[in-house]
Design goal:
Layout (H helix, E strand, L loop, with lengths): L9 E4 L5 H12 L3 E6 L2 H11 L5 E5 L5 H15 L4 E4 L14 H29 L3 E6 L12 H16 L1 H4 L4 E8 L2 E2 L9 H8 L6 E2 H12 L10 E4 L3 H4 L5
Parallel strand pairs: 1-2, 1-4, 2-3, 4-5, 5-6, 6-9, 7-8
């Protein structure tokens, strides 16, 4: 699809041991990129990289994507192994459901630290490296439809996703002079290893999604590759919703 657009490009993708992040890593490698694949679960990260890698174009590095020291380590390892860094996709995040009146401070802090803090620090470290290289590049944030529409018991998660979209818009001012695009994608209901554990998930979201089914990880990865492709570099500060039309009508799954 992208011919050799991603040849000589190097990406970091956090939270990519499975699901959406894994599929994005897989598609980037298939289109010529080299990828440093991160997951907090070391076994999962190693297995994912082994499934993808051809000629060592995908390596795993396990660790906490909210930790500033580890984030810099990811950047250093990407450059050490592949010579440069041109793409970062802040996919790692946590979803902690909870009633607003009972939501615990420690749960709020966990969601904020990874979803906002980890994304911000990855952007910062990546942008510094790309600026130093004078190569240009692309940064992608992982938002959600919950950053656009209210969803019961997801107040904390929803505000982190809305914040990421504002961050993408704000950083256009600072990153554009260095030919760095920054955007967000906002997936809706998506079939992953986690969501398909719920037997009612497909049935419920097929019923309330205008397109008649939830997204696949391929649907989301296709959008991610479009947003980070060199040919899309003039698109920046934008958020793309991939939800089969759900946010247009927004019926609750409850």
């Amino acid at each position: 699809m992208y011919s050799n657009q991603f040849k000589n490009h190097v990406a970091i993708i956090t939270g990519a041991g499975q699901g959406i992040g894994f599929e994005i890593a897989k598609q980037l490698c298939a289109n010529g990129a080299s990828v440093l694949l991160n997951d907090v679960d070391e076994k999962l990260a190693q297995q994912a990289a082994a499934k993808i890698s051809t000629n060592r174009n995908c390596i795993a590095l396990a660790g906490d994507a909210a930790n500033a020291t580890f984030i810099q380590q990811m950047v250093d390892e990407a450059v050490k192994n592949f010579g440069r860094l041109t793409i970062a996709i802040a996919n790692a995040g946590i979803t902690l459901f909870g009633d607003f009146f009972e939501y615990k401070p420690e749960a709020l802090q966990s969601v904020m630290n990874l979803n906002i803090g980890g994304s911000f620090l990855l952007e910062q470290a990546t942008a510094k490296q790309i600026k130093e290289q004078n190569s240009g590049g692309s940064i992608l944030l992982m938002s959600s439809v919950t950053g656009h529409q209210a969803h019961k018991n997801l107040a904390a998660y929803g505000i982190t996703k809305a914040a990421l979209e504002m961050l993408a818009k704000t950083l256009v001012i600072e990153l554009s002079p260095f030919n760095i695009s920054i955007n967000a994608i906002a997936p809706g209901a998506t079939l992953t290893e986690r969501t398909t554990e719920d037997e009612e998930y497909i049935k419920t979201w097929s019923r309330i999604t205008p397109m008649g089914k939830p997204a696949t990880v391929e649907d989301i990865a296709n959008a991610a590759l479009f947003m980070v492709a060199p040919s899309s570099r003039h698109i920046t500060g934008q958020s793309l919703i991939i939800d089969g039309g759900w946010t247009s009508v927004s019926p609750s799954p409850y």
